[in-house]
Amino acid sequence: MKKSDFYFDLPQELIAQTPIEQRDNSRLLVIGKHSGKLEHKHFYDILDYFNEGDCLVLNNSRVLPARIYGIKKDTLAKVEFLLLNNTGNDIWECIAGPGKRAKEGTVFTFGENVMSGEVVKVLENGNRLVKFTYDGIFLETLEKIGEMPLPHYITEKLEDKERYQTVYSKNSGSAAAPTAGLHYTPELLEKIKAKGVKIAYITLHVGIGTFRPVKTENIEDHNMHFEHFSISPEAASMINETKKNGGKIICTGTTCCRTLESVADENGFVKSCADSTNIFIYPGYKFKCIDALITNFHLPESTLIMLVSAFCSRENALNAYKVAIENKYRFFSFGDSTFITDAI
User: Fold this and answer.
1) pLDDT digits over 287-344, tens only?
2) CATH architecture of 67-145
3) Contacts of 172 (CB under 8 A, 6+ apart)
4) Chain-centre distance for alpha carbon 87
5) What is the phi/psi pair of residue 225, to 5°?
6) What digits encode the pLDDT tens for the residues 202-260?
7) CATH architecture assigned to 3-63+160-341
8) What separation in angstroms does the CA of 12 have from each of 15, 155, 261, 302?
């Protein structure tokens, strides 16, 4: 298939720049997985589509405030660093800009001397390995001085950092939010549980590669980035029991979907494990585990719209997006949501 098969024209004004005041008041477009039928709802209405014995899967990864600004010790020049992953011994792989100011051996201070960092290596891809020195606990220091690594299409300043976290975020490590989960409130989750729906928490740390565009015209030539995930014995047991008893596995977000589909056997059962995945799901893929998918509206020609198209067909997906644009739904990270289900 071609990348251009997943193009649609999106007006810039529909790209949400700020979160709405009440998380679960966002709009919800319910999409019939097979029928293509559409229903216009609000996210709090999602409760109506859950049944006792279903299992809702949530990604409890927490976003690192991974954008920090360093001052070069000798010239006082400012450089932005985006932390990508911890390679051990307080050395992080980072994107630095402007890169010419971050040569090997250069030392920077951060947050009014709360932390310092030395560029110990420039990698072949242009990223830097930076060795950080600080007092106390690194993640606590980062919470004080770091900013949320918002996607490039969000230009408004985020006033409250917690609005780029899900209310159930727990395990720090993501470079971007698992945004499908931003719509839940503690109250809505309690109502879901009260209906007899199990909630399974898994972790997939979203990498910065999630924003990497597909550059090959033939989508099969695109290489996905690796992301680390973990599934606890409790979560695996909950998911497998639901499958055995005929309940539905309802995934919140493409991150949960990709995690479960990476480990599921041919019968849809999953195992407890910690690993990395670079699974690329596009039309023609046969889903093994998940039955329904909650996900935000995605970029044209992205791997995420390809995954959605694999789940409900390219025709149903693009028609739903066309209707969403006509009805001025809000797109991307702080935007509205879709629920793809065979219930309609």
Assistant:
1) 999 999 999 999 999 999 999 999 999 999 999 999 999 999 999 999 999 999 999 9
2) Beta Barrel (2.40)
3) 61, 62, 63, 64, 139
4) 22
5) -80, 155
6) 999 998 777 678 999 999 999 898 899 999 999 999 999 999 999 999 999 999 999 99
7) 3-Layer(aba) Sandwich (3.40)
8) 6, 12, 33, 16
Residues of the chain with CATH 3.40.1780.10: 3-63+160-341
- The length of the chain in residues reads 344
How many other C-beta atoms are found inside a 10 Å radius of the C-beta of residue 52? 9
Q: What residue spans in the chain does CATH classification 2.40.10.240 cover? A: 67-145
